[in-house]
């Protein structure tokens, strides 16, 4: 089953048409009154930080991994990354960075089509918060995953929030979440258009009911999380978590079933996975590689004090700047252990040539990992730029374009045509 590519709208063609229109000569050119209301510029200016903090509402977030990754970063979460899932085929799911902490499924919510079995009360269930306010479903789904993800550094703010809400009911957790200024303000900073999803290409069996007007229903995010050997559906609109069965092999058909249930309505879907951040894995591998190279040099020089690799990956003098360029600290490499496989081969090294061969093999593998690490850093920088562009308020610019069109007498004709 395939999930279609994202369709993102752009105003470039509109701006291009406007630019062409403004170059046309019109005579006479009507002029707008100079004493226009001063309230218009005030209404069009971006919201000030204090105004954002005073507002108690939430905004919809676009189903875009870049937004979620920036939110995770700003929340202080480490070792986790949101990644798009383009297919539910098990083979492709197996290629996701491991471990997969959870899946975020986006669909257009319809209460008549979302008849779910009630989950029995259980003392043992994952951390779960209800959605108690409009437009918070994306943040609720994301936090319902990271709060249950093992080996993820939540940062001081989220860790404190989790501990302070551990003994609360799911509804009270949701209320505390929606009223938490730190969490809400970060979501507001990543304001976007209504979530965009992908059309499912699945063929579905006939369903029971069909909504009359799908546009009346908003998009909704649901999280699927592995916890204590089972997968749990964490839907903020439900009263409690819903336990399904074993993890990846069950989450996939469960999501497929949801998609098939809505298929006749021609709804759209999106699926993203919260995985371990590849930077964590690559950083550890680089540290192990550097530790291995140092161990090889030490062993070789114990036999011949003047031994030197033919082509050193990095000299001892260059190591601090080398690590700084990769955003790695010296403690990471100092704490790294030589992998057992390298250690076993190193014990069998008897000549300088054998030491040189082992050094070159480890150096080649480490260089490849550095390349993957740098590619991931580039991806993070691109996410940053993408979110920065989406955060920009284009309202004043569009107002300026419309004003110029009106001044040249073009606006009325464009509206009538």
From TrEMBL:
What the entry lists under InterPro entries is as follows: Papain-like_cys_pep_sf, Peptidase_C12_UCH, Peptidase_C12_UCH_sf
User: Which Gene3D superfamilies did the record assign?
Assistant: Peptidase C12, ubiquitin carboxyl-terminal hydrolase
Q: Does the keyword Hydrolase apply?
A: yes
Residues at site: Transition state stabilizer? Answer: 131
The domain of life is: Eukaryota
Catalytic activity field: Thiol-dependent hydrolysis of ester, thioester, amide, peptide and isopeptide bonds formed by the C-terminal Gly of ubiquitin (a 76-residue protein attached to proteins as an intracellular targeting signal)
What are the GO BP annotations of this UniProt entry?
protein deubiquitination; ubiquitin-dependent protein catabolic process
Example GO molecular function term?
A: cysteine-type deubiquitinase activity
Q: Can you tell me where the transmembrane regions are?
A: none
Indicate whether Hydrolase appears among the record's keywords: yes
Q: Where is this site: Important for enzyme activity?
A: 235
Q: Where is the active site?
A: 137, 220
Give the Enzyme Commission number: 3.4.19.12
Q: What is this protein called?
A: Ubiquitin carboxyl-terminal hydrolase
Q: Which organism is it from?
A: Emericellopsis cladophorae
Task: Please name the taxonomic classification of the source.
Answer: Eukaryota, Fungi, Dikarya, Ascomycota, Pezizomycotina
């Amino acid at each position: 089953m395939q999930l279609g590519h994202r369709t993102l709208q752009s105003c470039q063609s509109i701006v291009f048409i406007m630019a062409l229109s403004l170059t046309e000569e019109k005579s006479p050119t009507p002029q707008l009154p100079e004493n226009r209301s001063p309230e218009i510029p005030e209404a069009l200016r971006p919201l000030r930080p204090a105004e954002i903090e005073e507002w108690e509402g939430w905004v919809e977030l676009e189903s875009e991994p870049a937004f979620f990754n920036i939110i995770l970063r700003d929340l202080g979460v480490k070792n986790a990354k949101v990644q798009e899932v383009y297919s539910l085929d098990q083979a492709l799911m197996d290629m996701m960075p491991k471990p997969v902490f959870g899946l975020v499924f986006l669909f257009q919510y319809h209460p008549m089509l979302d008849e779910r079995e009630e989950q029995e009360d259980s003392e043992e269930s994952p951390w779960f918060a209800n959605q108690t306010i409009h437009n918070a479903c994306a943040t609720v789904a994301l936090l319902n995953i990271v709060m249950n993800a093992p080996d993820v550094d939540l940062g001081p703010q989220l860790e404190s929030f989790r501990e302070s809400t551990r003994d609360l009911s799911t509804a009270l957790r949701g209320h505390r979440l929606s009223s938490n200024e730190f969490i809400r303000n970060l979501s507001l900073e990543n304001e976007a258009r209504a979530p965009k999803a992908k059309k499912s290409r699945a063929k579905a069996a006939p369903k029971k009911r069909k909504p009359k007007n799908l546009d009346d229903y908003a998009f909704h995010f649901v999280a699927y999380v592995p916890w204590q050997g089972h997968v749990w559906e964490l839907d903020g609109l439900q009263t409690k978590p819903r336990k399904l069965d074993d993890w990846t092999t069950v989450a996939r058909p469960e999501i497929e079933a949801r998609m098939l249930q809505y298929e006749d309505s021609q709804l759209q879907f999106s699926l993203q996975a919260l995985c371990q951040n590849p930077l964590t894995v690559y950083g550890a591998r680089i540290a192990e590689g550097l530790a291995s190279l140092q161990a090889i040099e030490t062993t070789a020089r114990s036999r011949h004090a003047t031994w030197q690799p033919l082509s050193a990956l990095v000299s001892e003098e260059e190591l601090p700047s080398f690590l700084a360029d990769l955003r790695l600290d010296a403690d990471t490499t100092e704490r790294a252990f030589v992998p057992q496989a390298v250690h076993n081969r190193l014990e069998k090294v008897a000549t300088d040539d054998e030491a040189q061969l082992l050094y070159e093999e480890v150096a080649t593998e480490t260089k490849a990992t550095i390349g993957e690490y740098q590619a991931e850093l580039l991806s993070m920088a691109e996410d940053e730029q993408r979110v920065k562009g989406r955060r920009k308020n284009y309202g004043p610019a569009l107002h300026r374009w419309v004003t110029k069109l009106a001044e040249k007498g073009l606006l009325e004709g464009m509206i009538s045509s």
